[in-house]
Amino acid sequence: MRTGASYLAALSDGREIMIDGKLVEDVTRHPAFAGVCRTIAGLYDFIASHPDEMTFTSPSSGKPVSLAHIIPRSREDLARRRHALTRIAEHTFGLLGRSPEHVAGFIAGFASAPELFARQGARFGENIRRFHQKIRDEHLYVTYVIIPPQVDRSKTAHEQAESHIPAGVFKETSEGLIIRGAQMLGTASAISDYLFLSCIQPLKPGDENYAISLAVPMNAPGLRLYPRRPYAMGATSVFDYPLSTRFDESDALVVFRDVLVPWDHVFVDRNVALTRAQWFETPAHILGNTQAQIRLVTKLKFLAGLARKISSTNGVDSIPSVTWDLGEIASLASLVEGMVLAAESTAVTNANGVVHPNPRFLYGVMGLQAQIYPRMIHLLRELVGGGVLQVPSSVAEFANPDAAADLRRYVQSPGVSADERVKLFKLAWEMIGSEFGGRHQQYEMFYSGAPFVAKTYSFRNYDFTESLGLVQSCLSGYDMNSKCVSSE
Ligand SMILES: Cc1cc2nc3c(=O)[nH]c(=O)nc-3n(C[C@H](O)[C@H](O)[C@H](O)COP(=O)(O)OP(=O)(O)OC[C@H]3O[C@@H](n4cnc5c(N)ncnc54)[C@H](O)[C@@H]3O)c2cc1C
Fold first, then answer.
1. Is there an atom of ligand 1 within 6 Å of 196 CB?
2. In sequence order, what E strands does 318-401 have?
3. Which of 102, 143, 184 to mutate to test the pocket of ligand 1 (most atoms within 8 A of CB)?
């Protein structure tokens, strides 16, 4: 299987990433990305060295491939997939939203329904099937941009003041489609192999040029990334910035400066109905977002662990009001875990024989995510107090004997040395108060669309007929003539 070293080698391919007004020469060596590249390389090595729990046999090559790419055909497949995705999330404490497993779930979902893409012509169905096979067998890393840039949200793609603000077809040639425009927000695109481009926001007649679904290699000529400020760049040491130095996956505005996409990488070609149908008439959205929730379960466990460890370090973990906060944290973490398990144990088999988690429970918990995650962070903030700021400016203070003596005396807890305490509280601050932590809150609130979008998914997938039936049954049990028992 692909190793970390071969993943890293593939990234030095001339991709265009702009940082501080200059193009990055080699993403694997640039301070913005070097740390997270090593983290992903570690994931590849981990998967390759644990084939029993992390892989299944490729139906095309007969070789072991990552379970992230499986098209589940049974409850057992779903459980194996969840187990593997959990192990991967544990490797990164759930901190990489767009690690290689995320878009892999979407592509597996698309490929499970090639007939949908073939509605436009058999070759499009074949294209998605072959792309899935390629990324599965070569263990490639795909990220996606499926949201038009935030310019004027009151208008759809073709109504914007200028054409090709959102990425869309500029021209068609015998070789393929020329794409012009931009899309947001390419998380981890800088360190992936391929970029999937489409649109999940509703499009309407007139938007055909923007109703596409396709894939491009990250070094495609004309593809340019403008990442936000990478947090690893300001970091002075891993001890002081344990998360941003290793887990900043980066987010970027992606600009297509007339990028040629060969026909065999086009899955939907200027078709509004199909662009919509790919998300919701295949299990793609469910499989991709189930991976996201499995990852979130690990991240919430990690936050719960931080809360518990900090409370016990400060000697407050048996005070009732603190145990109530810890209890609420435990409830929130259990709620997400329980919903993932509920969705799996009530899994649905679709017409193609694909077994996917029950959307009612998946979207049910996604609809609350914009409340659950900020609440977890708030509770953690409440528990850590000012301890996260009662830390030296950097690890260098410990190398100065005069300063170290003060720190070792005043920044300690019973049974916990100053070194350990500072380490723990700096970790907590990165998670809740740093730029890295703030970005994580934004990510969890928005990664699957704005909070109102996630609630809409929940609304659509809940069986209100059951609820209405209960209300009707209650209403039918009495009328204007019904008397109270006591007055009979
Ligand atoms: C950290 C991070 C990483 C991301 N990574 C990716 C990625 O890898 N790939 C990708 O494709 N996308 C990614 N996204 C983009 C994400 O999908 C979008 O943020 C999301 O779809 C919401 O779009 P928006 O940010 O433009 O917010 P908007 O849609 O503009 O919404 C912002 C707010 O405006 C209001 N609003 C806007 N429109 C309406 C409406 N029609 N009705 C009612 N209220 C409305 C709501 O209050 C809403 O909360 C990422 C986002 C974040 C924050």
1. no
2. 348-349, 355-356
3. 184
